[in-house]
Amino acid sequence: MRIGNRPLAVLAACLGCVVCLQARAQDESDAERATDEHFEFSSEPVPEYSEIETISVADEPVANLPPPAEDPVQLGDVMVTSQKFRQTLREVPASVTVLDGEFLKQAKIQTINDINGYVPSTQVRVTPFAGEVRIRGYGTPPSNLGFESSVGAIVDDVYYGRTAFLSAILFDIDRFEVVRGPQGALFGKNTIAGVLNVATTPVQDYLNGDFMFTAQDIDTRDVRFGGTAPLAPDFGLRYAGSISRDEGLYYNTTLDRPEGNVDAVSSRLKFEWKLSDTLTLRPSVFVSDQSANSNLFQLAKVTDSMLTFLQAYDAEVEADASNERLSSNVDSYTDTTLYGAQLNVDWELSGDITLNSITAYAGYDLRERTLDFDASPAPFLKLSQADPSPYDQYSQELRLVGRLGSGFGTERSEFIVGAYGFYSDYNTNDRVILEDIEAAAGYVIAARAGGTPGGGSPAIGTILGELLNLIGPFTPDLPFTSETALLTLDQQTESYALFGQITSYLTDDFAVVAGLRLGQEDKEGHFVSDGDGAILLPIVTGQADHVSDLSRSESEVSPKFGVKYAINDQISTYAIWARGYKSGGFNALPFNDENLEFDAEEADSYELGVKSSLFGGVLQANLAAYLTDFDNLQVSTFTGTTFQVLNAAAARSQGVEGDLRWLSPWPGTELRAAFGYNDAYYRSYPTAPAPASSSEDSQDLTGRELALAPKWTGSLTPTVGIPSFWPSWGFQLAVDYLYTSERYLDVDLDPVTLQASTEVINMRLSAGAITGAWSLTFGVQNLTEEVILGQITDVPAAPGNYQAVRTSRGRQCYGVLRFQF
To answer: Strand runs (DSSP E) across 664-687, as ranges?
Structure first.
């Protein structure tokens, strides 16, 4: 069997085993089934017995459940807000993966990047100042902050215009929904690939608390806590926080320090005030401070002459992306504060119609950011901030959500209609610095010298640098020690939209879905590139002085149309066509007055799906097939000296994805599995960038695969309950198998940038009270010690040399202590 087909084969085999085992379980008597217990750590309140069909019983502590005298243990309907109102997952006409808060805690998913592998056809790489989320092969590269995201970030009904906010919110989570495919009709622009819809834990009407302490290796610590306090019969609050310190992703041999060692302190305060039976106010605020040493690029491959040159600055320098060492001379550091406040108002106008108002403000202050542009110990190029780079956004949404009875030939209808306004102000203030003329000369000559070890080029560079320094006093107007260029973008965005969606049931089982969004967006951009008399920097980076002003205006029409059909109480199907848009914008690295603007993307998507709850509710399985065509695709390319952003391609993504969850008759035992097959390729891209080492300036990638788009992704998580000698204790053993097939990591599809397929295995053993009052977990992550890279690019001004960003760590042991009340 080929490795590329392994996830689908594994899932098919597991599904076959599930069906066989469940058929055997169906033959047991009701009395035998009534004695089953399901163990899982949780602190959620116990629903009334009549409400159990709307809640996953597997997420409740056994000791608090009503005795299942008549019904077997089963998986209840999963409630989501993927369509902006509360409904079951089976009612949503879209491919959706849901990770509940309890699973996030048990699997030690503590940052947004940790979801990689668990969600099919989805890759995430987020930092405190930028981010990249890809669904079904499509996403926005983090190399240029002028790009909008292709995947919408929604937290508690608020849209966040910068992916960096996702680095601050993954604590005290109730539910994490990944909605795949264009979602423009309800969520607007910049959801062309999908939506990450996050719901934090709500304010409950009872006193409760949750505390988690995680220790990993030597210097990595994480503390998370949250609790609700009802202060009055109609007023309560919830406070949650997270404090974490990371030992770092790398060790920097040049500066003798860790890199990627994020320190983060985050808090969220939520209130709920029921003014009456029909009016509820839900204000909340959050803040997150994050800082880290931020050299993240390793040298992945260099020529012999370049390596010899760099060893003069650091004898320990290596060109190896498979280890956890790098060599950068720049004292890179990132310091960011993210914050926000919102007020949600829910006004029940009648028993079936509710008015929702969501007023929100959010921002971040990027106070410091320095990057080693050449990722080496040589003092060549670096990028730093001339001034802090702030981002602010304001949004207001009003919507009516409701249900209507029979009329106009329908049995019933569900509708949502609303208006949305958004404003943002974004500033970038970057300074590109040529650090040292002698090192720059040696670096460039070594990069051009070929592959002979110590081939004389470093000496030539040194001699050239010394010569320039000697003549420097006689030409004082030339900056022979260093050169700088200031690059800034000041951008304001205003957008407004009207939107609506209606689901009309022509019969009890068959419904028509129609949605539409009409939007208008205006952007203003002010650019500055000032080299302050630089001579060599323009040669190396293409910098040219200019001051430019641009404005752009876009209209959006995002329709959706489809049908839903419930075959029976257990199986439902849907077919949907949707159109999505991604905003055009401005280049945030305006080295020169060319290539400052790019246009909007457009996508048409077709999707068929089936959702089911089988065998008395113990098996949930979902399957979707899709085809999406993208036009005017936005691409960011690095030419070896500078970044270019432009619309240059048409592409297609087609495939199938599915997931299942099976609750075994054995107490405390279940199986989760998911897979995705995604064939993403360029329909047309005749002028794609050629690899920097090529003699050609461009290449035709028509028919070739997209970068960062693996064909196969899959996950398998069996959890087994272990019998205990203590009746009040329970034990569980869980294993994660996470598979991702090979993929290119740069848009030019250079063979050097091919990441091999990876198979990550995690294991954890948990012990705890059946009531969920406490638990202790010991685990190991990445048992297979897979090396996973998120990006490989050409080294600036050095064709044939490459740098990479690692996203995985080696084998990690950890322990988690948790208390709940």
So the answer is: 670-684
Chain segment 233-291, per-residue pLDDT in tens? 999 999 999 999 998 999 999 999 999 999 999 999 999 999 999 999 999 999 999 99
Domain carrying residue 296: 3-820
Domain count of the chain? 1
Distances (CA, A) of 754 to 299, 530, 707, 804: 15, 37, 9, 11
Determine the distance from the C-alpha atom of residue 41 to the mean position of all C-alpha atoms in its chain, rounded to a whole number. Answer: 26
Let me know the angle formed at the C-alpha of 704 by 701 and 705, rounded to the nearest 5 degrees.
125
Instruction: List phi, psi (to 5°) of 793.
Output: -135, 165
* pTM greater than 0.85: yes
d(CA 534, CA 144): 23
The domain that holds 476 is classified in CATH as: 2.40.170.20
Across the range 554-571, mean pLDDT stands at 96
Q: What is the pLDDT of residues 198-233, one digit of tens each?
A: 999 999 999 999 999 999 877 789 999 999 999 999
Residues 248-251: contacts with CB under 8 Å, at least 24 apart? 248/219, 248/293, 249/296, 249/324, 249/806, 249/809, 250/295, 250/296, 250/298, 250/324, 250/325, 250/326, 250/806, 251/324, 251/325, 251/326
- CA distances, 575 to each of 196, 563, 624 (Å): 21, 5, 10
Which residues contact residue 384 at a Cβ distance below 8 angstroms, ignoring those fewer than 6 apart?
A: 369, 370, 371, 430, 431, 433
Contact call for residues 749 and 707 (beta carbons, < 8 A) = yes
CB 787 within 8 A of CB 805: no
Per-residue model confidence (pLDDT) at position 465: 47
Residues 6 or more apart in contact with residue 141 via CB below 8 angstroms = 132, 147, 636, 747
H-assigned helices in 301-403: 304-311
**pLDDT value at residue 207:** 96
Q: Grade residue 357 by pLDDT with cuts at 50, 70 and 90.
A: very high
